[in-house]
Design a protein that fits this description.
- It is a single chain.
- The protein contains eight helices and two strands.
- The protein is about 60% helix and about 5% strand.
- Strands 1-2 form a two-stranded antiparallel ribbon.
Length: about 210
């Protein structure tokens, strides 16, 4: 998950949605770029959690004496490094992790995912909170989450119509964006407009060196 392999396709509906979110946002320092970054992070939350859990599983295997080859097999990267070169048999599991910088990436994913989860769990409006948890923390499809909330997903949160659900989702994203900008989480998300990129740029994580 870096600048080289994440491409963002911005369509007309997404632009309109972003504009509506900005109009709902009462915080003047949050702009279109911040909303785009926030929406991207929310869409990547499930992927980051998968990486975190897989990495923690691998670390637990190291503690149990797992070999470097077995470690990479468990992570789905059998005997391959980022360079594509095969590992030599005498490379230890710990040195493999350090050379691949996976531990630094892991710490960044933990930091970002914790902040995303906190921002969602800290939403004051109960409908916004439930909508955000369904869509972003649980990764449910839009129509499925909408159906859940129409029927009354929780007894303490009354059901809402489809149009209201759309509004609550946008308000949730606006409030999450404000939280993520305030705690500087969005500083780790970059939009690259360099040569060879599309006009809207490509979004990815800025991994600290």
């Amino acid at each position: 998950m870096n600048n080289d392999d994440v491409v963002v396709v911005v369509n007309k509906e997404d632009v309109e949605d972003t504009n509506k979110i900005i109009q709902l946002n009462f915080f003047s320092d949050v702009d279109e770029v911040d909303i785009r970054k926030t929406k991207w992070l929310l869409g990547k939350y499930i992927d980051m959690m998968d990486i975190i859990q897989n990495y923690e599983f691998a670390l637990s295997q190291i503690e149990n004496g797992m070999s470097a080859y077995e470690l990479l097999s468990a992570e789905g990267s059998v005997s391959k490094r980022e360079s594509g070169h095969e590992l030599t048999a005498d490379v230890t599991a710990n040195s493999v992790i350090m050379k691949d910088k996976r531990h630094d990436n892991y710490k960044l994913y933990v930091f970002i995912s914790n902040n995303v989860r906190f921002a969602i769990n800290n939403l004051k409006d109960p409908h916004e909170g439930v909508a955000a948890r369904l869509l972003f923390l649980e990764g449910k499809k839009y129509l499925k989450a909408q159906e859940y909330m129409e029927k009354g997903y929780r007894k303490d949160v009354p059901g809402i119509a489809a149009t209201t659900f759309a509004d609550k989702r946008r308000r949730a994203i606006a409030n999450i964006a404000n939280s993520l900008k305030f705690n500087r989480t969005l500083d780790f998300v970059t939009i690259d407009y360099g040569r060879g990129r599309n006009s809207e740029g490509e979004i990815g994580l800025l991994i600290p060196s």
